[in-house]
Amino acid sequence: MIDAIAFEFQTGTQPVHLPEKYGNWRGVYNRLRMWAVDGTWERVFTALVAQADADEDLDRAVSVDSTIVRARQHTAGARKELGRSAPASPPTMHSDASEPA
Hints:
Elements: H1 2-11, H2 25-37, H3 40-54
């Protein structure tokens, strides 16, 4: 189970794409989720850090970020294809403009 979860994180694959040697992907997914909810991963990490600290082997900072932000290619500055640009917006009417008398 641990190997399957490690493989998933190392490769960035989704549970449904795990190799068959790890067994049923639903079991891996459910166990990972259950351990996250019940605090198992926090306890494991805390114990590992405590052991490294006791061994005076803690000489680096560890940062784990599980967020992924994706933007459309146009948001990143990619060129749009010709003829596929957004429709022109209607003219803007300013509310403070006075109308001719």
